[in-house]
Amino acid sequence: MKGSALKPLSQSLLKLNLQTSLSFLSVVTTFIEKSAAILGLEEKEALLLTMAGEEIFSHLCQKAPDTEVEIQCSGAGYYVQIEFLIDVYNLDLKAFNLTTPIRPEEDAFQEDLGLILASRSVDRFQIWEEKGRGLHLCLIKEKVYPQGTDEVPLAARPLAEFFLKTPDREEIKLMARLALSQYPSQVLPVFFPFPGKVADMAAEKAFKAVVAVDPQGHMGGGILWYWRGAKIVACSGPYLFNQLQGSAIAEALVEAVLADIARTKAVGLLCRYPTADLPAKYFEPLGSFSFFPSEGSPLSITAYFRQLQEDPGAMVWSHPEMEPFLRQEFKRRTLPREIRTVTDFGEAKNPFSVLSPTFDRGRSLVTLQPVRPGRDGENNLRDHLEILRKEQWRNIYFEMDLSKSWQVEFVPALYNNHFRPCLVLPYAGDGDLVLFQAEAPASQSAGNHL
Q1: Cβ pair 30, 1 in contact under 8 A
Q2: Cβ pair 75, 14 in contact under 8 A
Q3: Of the candidate ranges 7-11, 171-175, 200-204, the one whose mean pLDDT is the lowest
């Protein structure tokens, strides 16, 4: 808690096993609150996470009484998550949707109120079912950091000579601040405006980074990279700070990343938001998507990919409506894939679907991820889109993992709600990811000559 002398125990896993009975509610809330504080959350965030956990446990007590549940708390310094593992299936979780209306006068609302409060109290959530283990429900709360400000403008100079090094805490913060001062938001990681978070993520090895400095310590550039899934590494950058045209720093930074991952199991290196300084000769274009800034015409952003070893091949799921797009992309990228088609033969389905949004307010960007399929998928997606448009989110995406057949069930809903596939990201999830983008309203797309 705030003011506590406890040192955050990052990367720790704390567990509690008990029965779903309201008699244990105080045990659960104390466990979550104390765990969140030990794992690094401040008092306000710890209390919000505790409240969310309390509502989830109470709901489980009501819907699956006297059932064994395991509660896990873990974190990495800049976030804490709690996970509920319980051997139940097909629990009604539609209240987790952003679109769930708040209607206090209705009895159905009172029943779902706990889940609504839980979903609104955390930054994001994940829900999945695993055969033999039941329901996994994960709530994630991030630590709040102050946004970086500069009373004295930052400056950088062309480097006559340079060497590469792993940045220390202050240098990684400086790299982020310099990048913020010289690059548009669409090519920067969402956490760059918060130097303290950048430093904590680096300390927890959420990513690796190198910077280019001269013998006097002046910084000329930097790049960071991290694993995305088990087979792909993603990079952000390279970022150059007031360097002369043709500087060798950009290539040196990319070479450093390639050298670091060369002997790993990485199949490829992905750069989804490249800067203009990315040395394109090291990569192949993966595809393009649109980005709508706050002012001016839409931008076309090309994602790049570098294959590092022979692709072992994979099986993917597809809906017939999406199959032509996938075959074209797999052929163009020479990706060995066996496509299996998901077909509806009238089997029973959940009545309600669940979607989880991840918000990037700095770029006015939101990414929807499927949590659970349902018969209402098309209407649910439409309702999400209407709310996001009303709140003036300019960039709306949907990520689909082709290794999960149930996610492919959303394809007709996506096409019918004017989403279109734009990128296939090899192995970027449990399998290949397809990125869909919502078509812009006429007011946004006017003047678009991409």
Answers
A1: no
A2: no
A3: 7-11
Contact between 211 and 171 (Cβ < 8 Å): yes
Q: Which residue has the tokens 């220390």?
A: 168
- Note the pLDDT of residue 449: 32
d(CA 270, CA 303): 8
Between residues 228 and 295, which one has the greater pLDDT? 228
In the chain, where the domains are located: 1-144, 163-282, 287-450
- Specify the amino acid at residue 191: F
DSSP string covering 432-443, please?
Answer: -EEEEEEPPPHH
**pLDDT exceeds cutoff 50 at 447:** no
CB distance 172 to 257 below 8 Å = no
Q: What is the pTM of this model?
A: 0.86
Helix 25-38 and helix 43-63, axial crossing angle in degrees, nearest 10:
150
Q: What is the pLDDT of residues 342-396, one digit of tens each?
A: 988 878 788 889 998 888 888 899 999 998 899 999 999 999 999 999 999 999 9
Strand partners, 181: none
CATH value of 1-144 in 1.10.600.10, 3.30.43.10, 1.10.3720.10, 3.30.565.10:
3.30.565.10
> Which tokens in the block code for residue 375?
């018969």
User: In degrees, to the nearest 5, what angle opens at C-alpha 275 toward C-alphas 272 and 279?
Assistant: 95
Q: Closest Cα partner for 90 from 362, 374, 282? A: 374
Place of tokens 């913020």: 180
210 pLDDT band, cuts 50/70/90, is: very high
Nearest Cα to 176, choosing from 214, 133, 130, 145? 145
At the fourth CATH level, the homologous superfamily of domain 163-282 is Gcn5-related N-acetyltransferase (GNAT) (3.40.630.30)
CA angle 319, 322, 328 (to 5 degrees): 130
Q: Could you give the strand order of the β-sheet that contains 354-360, starting from the edge strand earlier in sequence? A: 354-360, 365-372, 395-401, 433-438, 419-425
> Smallest Cα–Cα separation from 303: which of 433, 167, 164, 109?
433
Q: State which H helix or E strand residue 252 sits in.
A: helix 249-261
Secondary structure element (H or E) that encloses residue 166, with its range = none
